Amino acid sequence: MNKESLKFLTEVKKKPRFTPQTWSQLWKQIVIWVILAFVLYPIAWVISAAFDPANTIVGQRIIPKNASFINFIRLFDSELQPFTSWLLNTFKVSLTSSFLGVCITALVGYAFSRMRFHGRKTGLFAILLIQMFPQMLALVAIYLIIFWIGHYFSSFGLDTHAGLTLVYLGGAMGVNVWMTKNYFDTIPQSLEESAKIDGATPFQLFVKIILPLTRPILVVVFFLQFMSNYSEYVLARVLLATNENLTMAVGLQTFIQDQISQRWGVFSAAALIGAAPVLILFWVLQNQLVSGLTRGAVK
Amino acid sequence: MRTQTRLKRLEKFFASSSLNIALLSKLIILGISNAMALWALTVLLAEGHYLIFTILVVGALLIDYIFLSERAYPLRFIFPGLFFLLLMVVFPIGFTIYVSFTNYGTGHILPKEMVIKQYTDRLMLDEGHPTYKAQIFKNTAGEFAFLLTAPTGEQLVAVDKAATPLTEAGIKLEDSDGDGKVDRLGEYEQESILNIFSSLGKLENLTFAYEDRLLKLRTPETFGCYTPRYQYDPSQDALIDLQTQTTYFAKDGNFTSVTGKSLDIGYQTIVGWRNFQKLFTDQRYSAPFLQVFVWTLVFAFLSVLETLGLGLFLAVLLNDPKLKLRRLYRVLMVIPYAIPAFITCLVWRGLFNTEVGIINNSIFLPLFGKALPWLQDPFWAKVAILIVNLWLGFPYMMLICSGALQSIPGELYEAAMVDGANGWYRFRRITLPLLLSQLMPLLISSFAFNFNNFNVIYLVTRGRPAIPGSITPTGATDILISYTYRMAFEGGSGGDYGLASAVSLIIFMIISIITWINFKSTRALEEVPQYE
Q1: Is the ipTM of this complex over 0.85?
Q2: B357 is in which domain, residue-wise?
Q3: Do A137 and B497 touch (CB under 8 A)?
């Protein structure tokens, strides 16, 4: 250790403990902890309730007595709620519709990015404009369409997951098309040019060159769609009827509609299980998502 | 040299084979779509749905065109998305506009002709004619025949929708066990009592024409004479109830008598602007509508304001590189954004419960000695909704704000510091204006999103507490979209789809205006030179 650095160390030691700098840091820490308390408040109580064998809101304490997994067992092992079916239904519908949604979006984004045709600009704006209107505004019409479709193709009718998936696909484009198109625009065309000379069709270029290169944006679009379909309530509420067929959002809502205090523990267990997959996915994709979000914001 | 030519030949071969794959997949797509269309067309034609038939023919031909014409090549890529967009978004919007000008809803579902048919099919017992004793027979094909005996001894045979006197029917009666009762009626065998009861529903629907009236099962053992109860008079456009001799005139979707009494089933019809008139001029509708409308604007505005406030505040705090545990805080603060909103909303609903809820028991009772009526009182229910939405929404604002903060060039701050500007002044005069101009399009989108934030409202308070005196199911926390939903699907006496669609149309208008402003503000942004 040389003299210089020793001198530096002693200087640091001599500094008074509380400068205005540290005060402002302390103040910031306090404020952040207050906000954190607000953020963690419901989460803490739900975790506590999920492990509290009492299964009721009445007299719940933040540290449960005799904590156990009994609520999770009650959740999966009860005639009252087919929770396993709800979970599987939700995954089935949201995975299928997000996967197909990404396919649709990528195809459309590719066409708008690489091809020049009549009405291209108008079409791009029309897509954004149309999808400003949430589908639930036309709920009655959508209900009737699915009813009619079900009249001829019963496997796509009311109370079917295929029907619900069809409806979700209608909302797949919008901002997602813009996101994919903008990303496709950043891929240099020269890559495709050389393949084109070898006689590849645009579709082959799309599958073999563009798709592998643009995986990051496709993952983001998939996740955004997955999250919105996973959380979707009102369309599923209106289109699905049988208890066995419900998605988690509709099932849990009906489950606690009138008996929230008597079913609090079991519901909390369900809430933890329901939140986990999305939370984990978010964790894994966080960097890509946040950069996608902010890029969209600041662009 | 030779290897090179071989290579070229190979390349050519692969190129041609992949071309064939493309051709093959094209043919498969076309084959499937045309086969499905053809099958659907036969079904539609058989059922007489000519409009849908035509749409489908045009659609199928369009698919063929898209996949066969080189000029329509880009459409092959757009087609799948376009199909779902048209079917599930554009068509529903058009249909909603149409419905908003009709009286469509519970009690007004069917078109007029079908309602008239329902009424003219109704029968009434004609007491002026005899009641027949009935014996029921069935053949091996499962068809029924009846032997009817009037009190006068006159006998009729009722088969295949018509009754004829036994003497003219040419059917042989058999009494094989000789007990005086008929056992066989031609090919028909006597039906056991047990079977009669099990197929009673089917038997009750069989009618047999006899002279000017209809014969129909009245009790399992007797037949009565029936005549139609209602008659439609096209010249007056009215249904006449022949039992009470009342005339019900068709007007505005209902059949109404002169005294103002209406028949139960109305018909679907176009009512013009009546739904909109109701919303704006009829006190029973307009008062709650106005209340909901104002709250929707207030809710959306306050939601953007509060989430932006907290989000921006945190973004600035966490932007300080000297802050300890900064990365951990950033991760924790984003949690609300990563939890599915429906779960959060339902959890908060439990926490806000007035009697047993955790917020009252853990905060308000110990600290202030009293429980707040969170979900019962209109004011506190609104506060609860805003708290939930703050929790849900601030992480997004934080994320976009910290992104935007990083894009503000540091030289600006340095210049301001040289001029002696303090921290707050720098924030107010540099950070805020630059940030807001950058984020404006996103803030407007956020306003539009909250304007239709159904989940937060419906899953936390379900729109309640109810507004007293409202004729539709309306609550103090209802925003327009949940108001519409409840009008269509939660009405005590059924849904009013026409009125609900009218409200939807108003929402469409408002969203259009917001979108227009948004486009303008983005364009305005593009004209501002960016920092390079």
Answers
A1: yes
A2: 278-526
A3: no
